[in-house]
Request: fold
Amino acid sequence: MLYQFNEMQRYALMPLRVGAQFQAQFLRSPFNPFAETAHARTIAAACELFADTTQYHGKPDFGLHETIIDGKSIPVAEQIIFRKPFGQLKRFKRETKRKDPKVLVVAPMSGHFATLLRGTVETLLPDHDVYITDWRDASAVPLYEGGFDLDDYIDYVREFIGIMGPETHVMAVCQPGVPVLAAVALMSEDDDPNKPRSVTLMGSPIDTRRHPTVPCKLATDHSLDWFERTVINYVPVGYPGAFRRVYPGFLQLGGFVSMNLDRHMEAHLKQFEHLVEGDGDNADKHRSFYAEYNAVMDLSAEFYLQTIETVFQKQSLAKGEMMYRGDRLVDTTKITKTALMTVEGELDDISGVGQTVAAHDICTNLPKEKREHYEQKGVGHYGVFNGSKFTKFIAPRIGKFIRKHDK
Reply:
């Protein structure tokens, strides 16, 4: 019933939001003689804030149409290379003859769309041929397309890498760390000619026993049955994926917000002040951030539950007990040629310090010269893959690591 209640609430707020937008426009109109009074600006700001915070946000666009290479502006075009029911392989093709390293950015399937990594892609574009896993909202996938679980995720990653070829470098951001490392282990054991040259894990929950965070404790404090009863819902009629069992994106968003409620409240209070003062630049930045942050997608129930059990409750990969398709052990000791880099943030409250670097402990047969770890001081989870410190400190290190192992 949670899904239906959320839909009812969204439709019930629609006329109020439209009314608030109209009221704000009227109060700020140059034809309104009271537009510049403190009272009118305050009411208009309150109406705008209400309209913004109750706005429904669909899947955003990447909007990356150019990049700078050697001081020149180079056009960029999005290309869908391969499409599957629950995701597609997308390339950001640059109009240049440069042959830079191929990088597959594996986006997290954890509630937000792949566009959350827009800044990551933008930073990589000048020096890399960038591809990304563009995951699909489970509510948009009809039932006849079948299910999608953690094993399917591994298969998608393997298939995308195979399409890109043996010169691929993989970058897994947060949640994909476990399935990506599993995919590389399976490809290595199979002596797959397309196994990647390197893999970079960023803020990934490889071993959640190390410095467990709030999400880790939530997963271990409740049974899998509790999660199934509490957060799994059916997609209602009216969506292409009607009757599919999902973990709704709005529940995931609620969890994100509740973890840092004070920060979000402070951000909205500052936005109110910006609107009252007429500070359009900062107000637009706030809108842009929350338009992305509030755009969420549903996850298939089987993928979500299997991830909770395998990654957070049993730490199966870290313990050397992870099974693929129920009958094949994922053996990370088979990784001997794919270079491994791990990146962590000192203040990460999602994947605690130590959880990602644990990957080195289970890749025991990987030579020392193919390993690297970096911890960025002063950044939280988001800062590991986005923002000024990512651009200034983290991305250059990753780029250097990739080029080192690109031969």
